[in-house]
Write a structure and sequence with these properties.
By secondary structure, the chain is of the alpha/beta class. It has helices spanning 15-24, 38-44, 61-66, 86-92, 104-119, 122-130, 159-169, 185-188, 197-200, 223-226, 246-255, 274-278, 293-311, and strands spanning 6-9, 26-28, 50-53, 73-76, 95-97, 151-155, 174-178, 192-193, 206-209, 233-237, 258-263, 282-284. The structure holds (2R)-2,3-dihydroxypropanoic acid.
Length: 321
């Protein structure tokens, strides 16, 4: 890199990542770390060579088309790239990169936390104590569902799905999965592949979602599919909110078809369907799957490494398009 390229960074990075960014690039940093609207991103991108964005930034086809002509790369500080219209970027010749791998362990921890929290009624118990309403212990008090030895259904057996399966085996769970392609036996680790989601669901005492949000997966877990789960199943989502049809899940939580749900991601977050808040059998987190010091730093560094490679004329390691 002869002259240091100028990068628009829409949100505040972890300190080590920001330090590395500033060693390699000139940067237009976020003043207050408040999420920008699409129009604000387009305006702020005037004169920059690349943009480092996070999942709160939405660049649909019109926005990608409207980006100033100097923008040559969009480095996503996320593994999910559903917030960027990839086809529009391809048409404009803008490179898009993401941050896979480094967040798998942290996201897996949150998936397990959600499974346990939902199955063992963690939110309800917390509310009871904090509200001063815990009167006495009883044999049938706060009785939940046991995770140990149950069948875990995984939708999307990529890096995170595989790690969830590995950790869940520590709870003696039997793993079933659906994926676009069957994994080779060494990655399957004995998990049972189902070619159709409809075949997986009846096997899933616990169901954990790990597929990307695409046109095909939007609304994937709908009323018909929820009805295929064993009655009293636990549903967990650390992927993207719109993969679940909220009204269908809320109805299933009310009827007992789904005993409890653990959700870290929501349609239109941070505005979430208010019904989730009124249900005792939900365990809710504010999209913190990758939120550890280690992982958020590693994600930032990965996003910057992609920018560095690109501006040095090399292939960015995590190029999506
Ligand atoms: C991702 O990387 O896609 C996460 O949802 C952001 O933490």
């Amino acid at each position: 890199m002869s002259e240091r390229p100028l990068i628009l960074v829409t949100r505040t990075l972890m300190p080590d990542a920001e330090a590395r960014l500033l060693r390699s690039f000139k940067a237009r940093l976020s003043a207050d770390d408040v999420p920008l609207s699409t129009q604000e991103i387009i305006a702020a991108a005037e004169g920059v060579d690349g943009i480092l964005i996070s999942p709160t930034d939405r660049l649909d086809a019109d926005a990608v088309t409207a980006l100033p002509p100097g923008v040559r790369i969009i480095a996503c500080h996320s593994v999910g790239v559903d917030n960027v219209n990839i086809e529009a970027a391809r048409r404009r010749g803008i490179v898009v990169t993401n941050t896979p791998d480094v967040l798998s362990a942290a996201t897996t921890e949150i998936a397990l936390l959600l499974m346990l929290g939902a199955a063992r009624r963690a939110s309800e118990g917390e509310r009871l104590i904090r509200g001063g309403n815990w009167k006495y212990w009883a044999i049938n008090f706060m009785v939940g569902t046991e995770m140990t030895g149950k069948r875990l259904g995984i939708i999307g057996m990529g890096r995170i799905g595989q790690l969830v399966a590995k950790r869940a085996r520590g709870f003696d769970m039997t793993i079933h999965y659906w994926n676009r392609r069957r994994l080779p036996p060494e990655l399957e680790g004995g998990a049972q592949f189902h070619e159709r989601i409809e075949e997986l669901l009846p096997q899933a005492d616990f169901l954990s979602i790990h597929c990307p949000l695409t046109d095909e997966t939007r609304g994937l877990l709908n009323a018909e599919r929820l009805a295929l789960l064993p009655r009293g199943a636990i549903v967990v989502n650390t992927a993207r909110g719109p993969i679940i049809d909220d009204e269908a899940l809320i109805a299933a939580l009310r009827s007992g078809q789904v005993a409890a749900a653990g959700l870290d991601v929501f349609t239109d977050e941070p505005r979430i369907n208010p019904a989730y808040l009124t249900l005792d059998n939900t365990f809710l987190l504010p999209h913190v799957g990758s939120a550890t010091r280690e992982t958020r730093t590693a994600m930032g560094i990965k996003a910057i490494a992609n920018l560095e490679a690109f501006f040095q004329g090399d292939a960015p390691p995590d190029r999506v398009v």
